[in-house]
Amino acid sequence: MNRMLQLRLLSLSNPQVPLTSLFQSLFGTHGRSSTRVTEILQDRVGVSSSRKSLYGFRTFCTQEDLSTKKCVPCNSKDLQAMTEEAANELIPKVSGWNLVNEDGKLKLNRSWRVKSFTKGLEFFQVVADVAEAEGHHPDLHLVGWNNVKIEIWTHSVGGLTENDFILAAKITMGLTCNTY
Ligand SMILES: C[C@H](O)[C@H](O)[C@H]1CNC2=NC(N)=NC(=O)C2=N1
Q: What CDD domains does the entry give (predicted)?
């Protein structure tokens, strides 16, 4: 069994044991500091910094989990913008993406430098395919021929919804196996 899965199961069954201790028992520290171990956990396992206990269990939601979810229609009547606190809870689960507040409007953004203008357009095509499949779309910027920036927010509510984090996770997964 995958050791990361073992770690999750061990943590669920031993919520009182610090996760870093479980991680070290499974993976060893290999000289890593406990700070580094915590960083790995937050990056790989999506462990929230504050212990969100549901019956004492840590809630796990990794980037992969978000990328398996489906965006809901943005014109859903009960869709509303999330608070900055909620957005700060989710941002660790979309590694590489930034949470920004532009004049009170929360957005996600991420920038890349691509090898050429045409690589930038190929990059956008991958992103467009993901967005079309989700019915949820980012704002795309290609500036100075090789600087790419993607901004994601839910226009219908003027802020962030879970759709935006799902799209960010799917875009990241969609781009992972390509180089631009
Ligand atoms: C009907 C539906 O609301 C619109 O077609 C979709 C399209 N894609 C969208 N994308 C984003 N980011 N925000 C929206 O509000 C939105 N609305």
A: PCD_DCoH_subfamily_a
